[in-house]
Amino acid sequence: MTGATARQVPVPPEAGLAVPARPHWGAMAALSHAFAFGVAAPIYSFVTAHETWRASCRALGALVPGPRVLDLGVGTGTSALEMARGGGKLHLGLDRSAEMLRRAARAARAEGASLPLVRADGMALPVRDGALDGVTGHSFLYLLPDPAAALAEVRRVLRPGGRVAFLEPRAGRPALRDAFAGGPRCAASMLLWRGMSRLHARFHEAGLAALLARAGLRGARAWPVLGGHGVMATAERPE
After folding, report:
1. CATH level 3 topology of 42-236
2. CB–CB of 165/234 below 8 Å?
3. Span 168-192, pLDDT tens digits
4. I need a surface site. Which of 2, 6, 33, 100 has the fewest CB within 10 A?
């Protein structure tokens, strides 16, 4: 489901960056975020533990160079651990949720993997300028109040020639049959993702590419993945 062909997306100046949630849902979005990534972290971990989700993480990791790669919103560690399976890269994980980081550390120990973890805010990265070769984020930007500010930080910590890759919920009406074809957990994860993104934001391909381009990243391109439920994008910091 992640094998769609990548393509360059034109970025007109007037391109909308995202399809935001309805304004009166702000308080509900904050509560759902705190619940999903706090006390409900075990549920999140369970419903994303399936091959379709893991494959999307590996596809994301293949888009960025190494060796130093930061995974933003690392959550329970699935994304970073799956990306690290290719070898040759040092993956670091960052998240604001202490519960998510505890679960990520536990998952890394269970696999015998090295996964340095940092509790920090993605809007103020504790990384020096130009220190990283790649930055990834699976389901990260859509949760932020100001994704443009976060991408300015991402550009700062990337070396010239470094790349970013993000996978975010896609605007539109994807066919649920594709989610159910991946099994019960896949269907549950897509439904949960759709519900969360309805409270926060969803992206069109042109909008996500525009967001990366406006952050000063070059060659932004985006394409649908996960049966149209997600949109993946990548870009490069200019030399």
Report:
1. Rossmann fold (3.40.50)
2. yes
3. 999 998 877 877 778 888 888 898 8
4. 6
